[in-house]
Each structure stands twice: as C-alpha cells, then as structure tokens.
Amino acid sequence: MALLSFLGYFVQAQQSPLYQDTRQQQWVDSVFNALSQEQRLGQLFMVAAYSNKDERHYTEIEALIRRFNLGGLIFFQGGPGRQAHLTNRYQQAAPTPLLIAMDAEWGLGMRLDSVISYPRQIALGAIKNDQLIYDMGAEIARQSKRLGVHINFAPVVDINSNPNNPVIGFRSFGENKFRVAQKGIAYMKGMQDHGLMADAKHFPGHGDTGTDSHYSLPVIRHSSLRMDSVELFPFRSLIDQGLMSAMVAHIHVPAYDTIPNKATTLSKNVVTDLLKTSMKFDGLIFTDALNMRGVSDYYPPGEVDMEALLAGNDVLLYSEDVPLTIELIKEAFVSGRLQEDDINRRIKKILAAKYKLGLNKPQEVALQNLHEDLNAPKGLVVKQKLFESAVTVVKNEEQALPFKHLEIKNFASLSLGEKEGNEFQLMLDNYAPFTHYALKNEQKTIEAYSELINKLKWYDVVVVGVHGLNNTVKKNFGVNPNDAFFLDMLAKYTQVVTVVFGNPYSLKFFEQQKTLVCAYQDEAMMREVAPQALFGAFEVNGSLPVSVSASLKEGTGNTLPSLGRLGYGLPESVQVSSDILAKIDAIAREAIESKATPGCQVLVAKGGKVILNKGYGYQTYDSLIPVNSQTIYDVASVTKVAATLQTVMFLEDRDIISLDKKASNYLPELRATNKKNLSINAILAHQAGLQPYIPFWKRTLDETGQPQADFYSAYPESSFLSQVAGGLYGHTSLKDSVWKWTLESDLLPLKKRWSSYEYKYSDMGFYIMQKMSERLLNQPMEIFLEDNLYRPLGLSTMTYLPLCKFPVDRIAPTERDTYFRNEQICGIVHDQGAAMYGGIAGHAGIFSNANDLAILMQMHLQNGYYGGHRYFQEKTIPKFTEKHFRGNRRGLGWDKPATGKENNPASQYASYKTYGHTGFTGTAVWVDPEHDLIYVFLSNRIYPDANNTLLIKNNIRTRVQDVIYEAMWSDKNVTDLAN
C-alpha cells in the first residue's frame, strides 16, 4: 500500500508544477503529521493583512496565526519597511511558515509606497519583445522575494474584449488571445524561473464583463464553445507551460452552471470539472477575495468559504471569519458534506507549494538596505526599456515622426492638464529649441483655448502632451471633450503632434489628429521616454493591444526608425554602476566648497545614452541662482573644436582644402608674411611656430590703462557697434586691427635639429583658420555654423553672442575684469581677443550647456552621422582625431591623452583613440570611441578671479573622468583594463 501511494505521488509529481522529489514528500508528510486537525485546516486560509493600520489590526492577525496556524497572508496597502517588520513578526508567530502573497500585477508599487511600479499590462500588451516582459517578471520576483513574498497574484490573462469593462481594462494585455497568452507566459516564466509563484487570473475569464465583481456579480452569456476557444485559451497556454497557481473569478457563466447567481468561484462545474479535470490543472487554486460582493451578496461569511471548498478550491483568499469556517468544516466532515481525505490532499498540496518556494526553513526578511535593494537601478532599467518598447505611434499621416530637418522647424509644446515645466517638456528641450505652454484643468475656458490658438498657430510644429487622464470608462477616461475639439481646431493652423499619456481607449476622442501617439501612462519616466521616441533616440514599434474605434484597430502601430540621436537613461542601462558614478557628487562638492568654482555641470553619455546630466552648486558664490542642466557657460577654447574645426572639417570633407597645403594657398595675405609656409595641418596641431597668446587688448589702452577713444565708445553708435563689455563698444575696424596684428606677429624659433617648429599650444592659428574658413565659405562662420550644424542638430543653447538669445540669469558669469573692461563679465566672451573680435572668434566665443556639447560630440562619435543626417563622410573625423606629428600628442584641432611625462589633460584610463579639448574658464569635453563614451565638464572657475587655479591644481576635471571609467569597470581592476 505504501509503495502504491509513493508511485501515485510520483506520477502526480510528473504532472504537477508543485511536486519535485521524495525529500519534498517527506517534509510535507512530517509537517502534516505533526499538526492537529485545526492546525491543518488553518493552512487553507489566506487572510488579508495591511502594513498601514494600527496595532489592533496587527495583534488580531498575529492571534489568528498563533491560534489557527494560518496558511498564509495577502498583504495590501502599506510600506515596504513596515511590511518587512510585520512579515518577520508574523513568521515568528507561525507554527508552520506562512505563504506571503500580494497583488503585484505591476510590481510591488501596486500596493506599497516608495517602491517600483512597472507599466500596466495594457502597456505591456503593446510590446513586441516578450523577453522584456520576462525580465520584468524576473525583477518582480527578485524584489518580492527580498520582501519575503512568495506568491504574486499575476499575470491577469483575461482577454479584454469588452471596451466597457470597468474592472479589467488596463489590467489586461489586450483583446487578442494569442497576444495575451504569449505575454502571460513570459510574465509567468520570468517570475517562476526566479522562485516566485505566479497566479493566472481571473479564471475562466473576466474580460468580457460590463460590471465589477467587487460590487456585483457579472454575467457572461457566451457558449461553452466560445469560452473554450477564446477565454480559456490563455489559461490553457499557461497551464501547458507550468503554471503554479490560478485564481477563480467571481463571475456567473450560465454555460457552465445554470444555478442562478452561482459564481464560478463556488461552482464545482468550473473549479473541479473544468479546471482540475478537463484542463488537468494540478497547481494551487485560489478563490478571488471572498469579501467581494460578487459572492458575499449571496452567502454569509463562513458559508461562502464552505461553498468554495465544495467547488474544489485549495486556498480561501480573504476569508472574513476563519473561526466560524473551521467549525463549519469540522461539522461538514461529520455530516459527510466534505470528505476529510479530499481536504487533507489539498492541505498537502499547499505544504508542497511551501516546500517548493523554500518555506521548509525559517523565514526572515533582512531589514538592512531594504529600500535600496527594492529600488535597485537594474529594476528601473527594465522599467524604462518596457516604456520605450510600449510607445505606440498610432497615426503618422504626414510622416512627421521621427522629427527630422530641425533647422526648418519652429517648435512649441503644450501640456494639457499639467503645469508648465513638467518632465515631458524638459526632455523636449534636450532635442530642439522649444517654447512651452501649459493649460491646467482649472484654466480651461473658451477664452483660454482661443488665446492659445492665437499663440500656437505661428509655430511650425506643436507637440501636445495630454495629461491627467484615468482608467474610468464611465468618465470617458478623464478626457475633456473641449481638449479634443481644441486640438482639432489647432490642427487647421499648424502641424500638431498629440501624445496621449493615458488609457489607449481614450484615443477615440483624438482620432481626428493626423499624428497621434499613445504613451499609456502619465508618470515621470514615460514623460521622459516619449520625447525620445518622437526624435528618434530609439526604434519605436509598439502596437495597439486593443481596438479603440473602427479606424484604430488592435495591432495598429507605425514603426519609426532610430535616427542615432542621444537617448537618456540610467547608468545601468549601459552597464555602468550608478553607485560608483555617484562619487562625482563628492568631487563636485569638494570643488565648490574649496572655491575652485561656484558650480558646474557634468554630463556622461555612453552607448548613445546620456546617463548623467547634473548641475552642481550655483552660478556665483552668493548662492542666488542654482546651476541646472539649462545653465549656459562660456566654453572658452572648446570653441576651437566646437566651432572653427567644424568649418575646417567641412571644407576638407568637400575637397575644398587640402590639409597638407599651406594656409597661404587660401589666404593670399599670408604670402607676404612670415606665415607664408605654414601648413593647415601644422596650424591645427599647434606645431606651426605661432605665438601661444598675444594680449592684443593692451594695444588699445592709453598710458593710463583706459580704453582709447579710437577703438572704443561707451555707447553703441555709428561705427562703434561691437559690444566688448556692458558699457564698452568696439570700433568696426577693431577686428581688422587684430587680424593685422596677427599677421605681423613673430614666430617662435625653429628647432635646429629638425629645422621645424615644436608643439606649442596657440590661439593664433585659429584666427587664421577662422579667416580661411570664412573666405572659402563666403559667409561669416557663425552663420554657417548656425545654418549647417547647430540648428540641424537641434542645439538650443550653443551659440556666439548669447545675450542676443537668452536672459542673462541663464548664463554663468566669468571674471570680474579689473584691468581691461573693468566690470563683471557675464554673457560676453571672457577672452579679451575674442571680445575685440566682436565676440565671434575662432579660438573662443562659443557658449553652451553640457547637453548641446554632448550632441555635437555624439555626432563625432558616430563619425559624422546624427538625427538621420550625415554631416561628414565617415573617414573625415577619424582623420582629424588621430596624431599627425611625431612627439606631438595632438590630433588636428583636437587634444588627446598625454603619454610619458607630459601633464595629462585626460583621465589616465582614457583609450589612445580618445580626443577632446579643455577651456580656460574651466571646461572640458572628451570623446572615447574605444568605450563609446562622452564626458563634458563645464564650470566658471574664473569667477570672480581668473587667477583661481584650484580646479586645475586639484585635478577636478580628470578625477571626475577617472570615476567614469571606474564606474564602467566596477567589477574589474581599472588599472589592468586601462593598460
């Protein structure tokens, strides 16, 4: 008999997802045999627990556990720390370890504060790559187990074929049974492969209901044939793939049970005959919550539990009266209404599940670092990838997306239902110059709409974010009908791109729009992802999981290609440690506290994604204006590569110049000077014998040190139109004078050994390069750059003469000049020679924020390609960024890491392919192609005194760069890798 029992158990083990080996059976039998009847029956119950209630509630739960040996708890609202404390308390009180469960359909954040919430299942239904859903399941498993949770009542595999469903809707993967099954399997396997029990719900299918079983009993009148071919399909698919548990719904299906108001939860025809026998499911079967009115309206507490057991359920979820139910079960054993052997088998099944989930040993949640572990960056990376993959371009009739040809577009954004300056608008600013508008719900009047149309109709493109929506069918998902009418009117005047941050069913109110995007949820991360999709930072291929209207069917979705624009995300998305990268904060604080600089911007991009873009400190030491990502800095000599070198590369790229030819071939005025034989490549490599720096400004002062009247005026008048300082304007001839003095300047002595010039960094060569470029381009350099590079790239801050475009409070001030201009310099180039040149010089004069420099550098990292446009041939940038002269570390225009005994301007870990430049004001940009890496550091270290060299002495810029490499190689020896 014992042998037969064992063989029967073994056969069962081959079929069931819960059984595994003889050691499990031995544990189950030993625990079962050690329990009293009442303790055994307690295993059938899973009681509701909260971590946001008072001690009275906690004591009541603990008493139930001690008295009846409850099988488990389902935690609802609260916080992770409080829940962890309570879990330990309850586990300690439990004679048999408790199964801890949660409704975490979109992660622990569905119930708890301060933890990750993943996209709702309707958004997951839009995703083509099911591996991402598996990854989410794995992350939810990791987080749940960390919190002491063993079962997640997910996935929902109801097919939402009824758009008016008030309870499933956004909780479903969609209306397509194959899509629902595939994604349900991916979610289930992600959890179960990583030790968390999945639970498919709500059997036999709650999708085609028009009422909510929390408040009444929905009725589904489909035939059994229809139920079998549609509603049961996902459940059968998950069962075939090893589903460990299922939850039965509180719905009435007359095709299965003709007894009026008989919920499927309480129907033997459904639970035993259909699920267990016909579908051969041998996992745990949970009732839906027994306090829901779908069943509680028809049966009192205790009796509803009995009906659920009679139907064949294993676990009674949210039982309202455990003591009464246990007494009724005992009575049913005596009367024969329940068979004790049958109930015992279910109890052993529960114990088998406990063993499989690791409850054969003591349970304790480690409290230390709980918050950090639950919110680990890798979990957020998964979330961002899901949101990126879910974005659905529903309509793109005018092929407006992804945005190209930014130079011919004038952009505005409008946030409906949200304040101005939200995450959506801030991210748009990273891609192009935008003017932002907002209309909150309380401001929506006919006059306000009319005023907005009058303002917005003058823009070429208006990107609209629709916010503040909800998932309530009866309230039109929160859509204000006036918003839809307003957008239809606005579209008559300009191109409107509408992004709906809400339920896809709400799209029917906006289907007249020619460009329509579904972003599914209105939360910070999705607000940041959506603009990246619009501008082509990644490929967009989401599709509608449900049919919205006759014209917007399930499966609708336009694919948008990636245009190679920068994306924005977490360090871990490109295998960089955010914990180590955070060391940059301490270095920045050190710089600010030591007064090496009042503030700075630091940007890091890797793998085409900005993973850090942060402002530190203030623009000045009085701490009035904080530095943020939109603060604009004088980048000083970074101008050489961000401006002048771009024009030189353009000319060489088009075969207009040859680098090894003399500059005098293109500038005849050089032929009569000592510079007649200087080659372009030697000038760019700072190996042409030019003076490092000439203080031209001194020539324009009189013997008392005051500006000469021939050169300057205190007012802009007649020929004095070039602003050199706030109250100082240069004569139109001043630029010609500086050029004349440049031509007349001496050269450094030749090196006798080789009869050539040695490497000597110089500004002078870039006066020559600017003049040559403008001559050959036949236009001012700043206009060429704006039209051919800066505007097409979408650079919103990179410019000469920033005061012509931006308020002064956005610009970090530089030196308090006491020797030439005698004022605080802000918004006017600090370099005196560049100021005399009208603020537009080859060696200085560009202002920018870190983001714009990163975009420019990303184009270089991609060898001339960005935003769907090729700016340079693939061979051009590598030619300029490699070394050309022996004994000279520099490329053509670009600086490179030093070797030997030279002071290294870059990190010691930078690869030999690295190139970049630094600036006198405390700036640096570095590109490392070997590691697909960009680093930008901007500061105004010369405020208020240019003699402040602490930033350099303390090696702040390179130490920050060292941390970046350390964060990249956090699990390896940095020095070994660098070598």
TrEMBL record:
All residue ranges annotated as the Beta-lactamase-related domain in the record: 584-946
Domain Glycoside hydrolase family 3 N-terminal: 38-351
Taxonomic superkingdom: Bacteria
GO molecular function terms listed in the Swiss-Prot or TrEMBL record: hydrolase activity
Residues spanning the signal sequence: none
InterPro entries: Beta-lactam-related, Beta-lactam/transpept-like, GH, Glyco_hydro_3_C_sf, Glyco_hydro_3_N, Glyco_hydro_3_N_sf, NagZ_Beta-hexosaminidase
Keyword Hydrolase: yes
Record EC number: 3.2.1.52
PANTHER family given in the database record: BETA-HEXOSAMINIDASE, BETA-HEXOSAMINIDASE-RELATED
Record-stated family: Belongs to the glycosyl hydrolase 3 family.
Record's protein name: beta-N-acetylhexosaminidase
Provenance organism: Shiella aurantiaca
